[in-house]
Amino acid sequence: MFSITVRDHLMVAHSFRGEVFGPAQRLHGATFLVDATFRRPELDDDNIVVDIGLATTELGKVLGEFNYRNLDDVDRFDGINTSTEFLAKVVADRLVEAIHAGTLGEGARGIREVAVTLHESHIAWASYERSV
Amino acid sequence: MFSITVRDHLMVAHSFRGEVFGPAQRLHGATFLVDATFRRPELDDDNIVVDIGLATTELGKVLGEFNYRNLDDVDRFDGINTSTEFLAKVVADRLVEAIHAGTLGEGARGIREVAVTLHESHIAWASYERSV
Amino acid sequence: MFSITVRDHLMVAHSFRGEVFGPAQRLHGATFLVDATFRRPELDDDNIVVDIGLATTELGKVLGEFNYRNLDDVDRFDGINTSTEFLAKVVADRLVEAIHAGTLGEGARGIREVAVTLHESHIAWASYERSV
Amino acid sequence: MFSITVRDHLMVAHSFRGEVFGPAQRLHGATFLVDATFRRPELDDDNIVVDIGLATTELGKVLGEFNYRNLDDVDRFDGINTSTEFLAKVVADRLVEAIHAGTLGEGARGIREVAVTLHESHIAWASYERSV
Amino acid sequence: MFSITVRDHLMVAHSFRGEVFGPAQRLHGATFLVDATFRRPELDDDNIVVDIGLATTELGKVLGEFNYRNLDDVDRFDGINTSTEFLAKVVADRLVEAIHAGTLGEGARGIREVAVTLHESHIAWASYERSV
Amino acid sequence: MFSITVRDHLMVAHSFRGEVFGPAQRLHGATFLVDATFRRPELDDDNIVVDIGLATTELGKVLGEFNYRNLDDVDRFDGINTSTEFLAKVVADRLVEAIHAGTLGEGARGIREVAVTLHESHIAWASYERSV
Q1: Contacts of A31 in chain C (CB under 8 A)
Q2: Which CATH number fits the domain that encloses residue F101?
Q3: Does the global pTM surpass 0.95?
Q4: Residues 6+ apart with CB under 8 A from F72
Q5: ipTM associated with this complex
Q6: Of A80, A123, A128, the CB nearest to B6
Q7: Per residue in A71-111, pLDDT tens?
Q8: I need a surface site. Which of A57, A94, B35, F114 has the fewest CB within 10 A?
């Protein structure tokens, strides 16, 4: 199995509901380092997993919708705890949609799995992985 | 599949038996950066994999038993090479016990896999992963 | 010159005033990795710069005042852009006060300089350094 | 499953053919950080995955064939895009050959999988993994 | 003293002249992680060292002139060993010119020092620092 | 001012004397990542600070004297707390001796300062810097 990963980042505010979150129930924020991984069993005609330029641009677009925002004010997250693991799934699902829409190039249709890791600090990170 | 990982560290002395270890047969030491990963297919009612505070506390407790010690003097390791890969299993097994004991919270019973990575330097690390 | 550095982190929300900040004028957030450095020309009687345990505890206390908060709601920052470089100074000044107050131990009075670096992402960080 | 990983690096020149590569069609270069991972279900008689010294030496030998070279001039890569993901496979295949040849020691015959990751920068990396 | 640092990277081919360089006399390549630091004693009216957006854009422009190139073919480097430390000076000098030209904003004229670090691998890096 | 830095590592056991060290008074150990920096105002005739190969070899020799040892058993450290900051000085002093002895090459006599940083974990490190 081959894979490539590209990294970008995201700076957001949010708060959590539930006693388990302790002081993180208050409005606070995070820088998330975001690693998006694309996996496939064989390389495409250019001998790559996906055009790394397109992958980087697409990841930037997905993150751009949330960057420099308060996630508590984003309609689609109404009533939802925007935990690191949940946000990893949001990003992964959007990248899978981009693959199906052809935004990552025709060759990218051979991608079989997408995994997204969000690092919330140097001592904690979360991932979500799924098939395409 | 979702996962979260928390990082802590451990500073121990030990020595190895066996020619394969060369100079590491002498009493020496290591700082191990320890990454503990918890995986599950669905998030719990709080939209998380596990309470990251509890996970961090529990990892600290597991490491606390060995921290600032000479592993050659720990009874349970008598006659055993405490290699990095072996220690990764020791930590992972203890975290699985904690899940079963409920120490990581009731929601944590949904965790399916635990993986532990110990970095012994910037150029070498070892992992062990198992089902819960 | 000797120095020791300890690292902790901080997760906050805030917003900026001024066109130069572009989208960061909106309420957003950041994880700041915080490196606090203490420098002195000679070591103390224990052969150290400062008790690393006390230094870590004190840094945690300083960050604890701001952690998991919206800095826009903190009175002392009213009307002030809480830029990364400004926050580095806030932390450094508090650590210097702690040295003068003896909170870092009597031996720590030999510290001559304090420097604080806040990493806002993997591609940007800011520092402030001053004499004690 | 147990694993150990060792890291080394490689500095090469190369160019790519295909519009998808944009400016990387020009002769340029890269430092690749190379992480080689060896996995097996049980440890050997010394309680390890593989002799980390032998693994490091063997990885160095594999990289030594390409280090400080222009890959466009290497016969076996004639007409091939030496993408990061492709080079990960080249290294992994060579390490599997070494396992079969016994170069990594008799105990290493228990290794079941090899994975190789090449980091081309702080924001992009590629992997290849295979069974032994 | 305050500072901010921004990071970008550069992928080039080059070769060296001189026995001291050993195998690096052959045409090879490198990824350089480039950290550009700007220092000043007081912050500007926006409470910052320099607009981090402008600093990042300007660093990208400076690196863009060399990115994805063979430095052996760049006229201004004719007969010069493009060592990591030398390239750090080339980047730093260009950033100082940008400060004087006002490209980094009027506020940036308060910057007193520029330092540039180029990481050629995880185990070697070089810096150059100068006054403005 | 120009500089180059090379990184290596060291794995040792040791213990400390003094209540300030708490549990670290017990025999334990550490992996130290060791960064050795060489500074000079002008480059040598090869356009470098120092031959990076010689610098790496020399650093390895200095560390080799202590690697895989219990520092409590090293005669020259008898009655001395081998703190991270103290060990940074030991390494720096040896590198300065090497410069004076010509071991780093004739060109290296232009080096004016040496700085050594020892990272004892991902959250703590110490440095010592001196003139040559």
Answers
A1: 29-32, 120-121
A2: 3.30.479.10
A3: yes
A4: F13, F14, F15, F27
A5: 0.96
A6: A123
A7: 999 999 999 999 999 999 999 999 999 999 999 999 999 99
A8: A57
